[in-house]
């Protein structure tokens, strides 16, 4: 667990320097030379942050199981059991890092931290500072297809189809991930995933997948499945009317998988 200490400390130092330079640029607009130097330092800090984030992504994916076993998924349209997700280990960062800095203050009239304050209000209401929140936003891409396999039972208005083995291929995926680093004045630090949002999603393709040895009974049971009969219709639905619900399911799977792994691997600082 202690092997992740080396990551959080330089991440804190660089993000603190970066946020200081962002404030310096805002306050020194009348000093072009100093602003130019601050911008160079800002770019350098962001480059180092990129290196640290890339290293963190590699460390997380190294410890990730392949395939990633999923909890059963159930909704009004289908139930997926024995789900296995392939391809997460190939995730890489694909865009520059965006950094946001926020201070947490305990104002005298409020018993809880007020996180929705601006710089002018910080100066006017300096009561008790509780800590800082740093948010790092960046893109994650999957060079190869993401593939989901499992047993799916589809329910429609006219029939309920038998469970069958399916292979779902998701292509051209780009995800916007936001990491949140909370730094308390007591010295405690906590790194968490604030959210994972699908920004680009090329297409979804459904295929039936044989699960038996090819006996007549098993083939007949597989042929009664929805995908065996209507795979092309499933593709149309997934890339049309059901596109948004499926994206939400994918975001939930990604967020839960990476959040659980990050919580398991990082030390309790």
UniProtKB/TrEMBL annotation:
Signal peptide coordinates: 1-19
Record key words, sorted: Signal
Protein name in the entry: BPI1 domain-containing protein
Species name: Echinostoma caproni
């Amino acid at each position: 667990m202690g092997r992740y200490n080396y990551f959080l400390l330089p991440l804190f130092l660089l993000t603190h320097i970066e946020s200081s330079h962002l404030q310096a640029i805002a306050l020194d607009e009348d000093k072009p030379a100093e602003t130019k130097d601050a911008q160079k330092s800002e770019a350098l800090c962001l480059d180092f942050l990129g290196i640290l984030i890339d290293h963190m992504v590699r460390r997380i994916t190294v410890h990730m199981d392949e395939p990633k076993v999923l909890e059963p998924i159930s909704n009004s349209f289908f139930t997926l059991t024995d789900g296995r997700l392939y391809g997460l280990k190939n995730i890489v960062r694909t865009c520059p890092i965006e950094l946001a800095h926020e201070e947490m203050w305990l104002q005298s009239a409020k018993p809880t931290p007020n996180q929705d304050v601006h710089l002018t209000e910080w100066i006017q209401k300096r009561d008790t500072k509780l800590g800082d929140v740093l948010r790092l936003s960046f893109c994650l891409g999957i060079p190869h297809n993401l593939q989901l396999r499992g047993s799916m039972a589809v329910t429609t208005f006219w029939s309920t189809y038998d469970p069958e083995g399916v292979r779902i291929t998701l292509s051209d995926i780009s995800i916007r991930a936001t990491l949140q680093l909370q730094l308390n004045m007591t010295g405690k630090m906590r790194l968490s995933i604030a959210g994972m949002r699908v920004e680009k999603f090329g297409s979804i393709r459904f295929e039936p997948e044989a699960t038996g040895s090819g006996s007549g009974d098993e083939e007949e049971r597989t042929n009664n499945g929805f995908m065996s009969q209507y795979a092309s219709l499933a593709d149309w639905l997934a890339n049309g009317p059901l596109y948004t619900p499926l994206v939400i399911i994918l975001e939930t799977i990604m967020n839960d998988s990476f959040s659980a792994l990050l919580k398991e691997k990082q030390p309790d600082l």
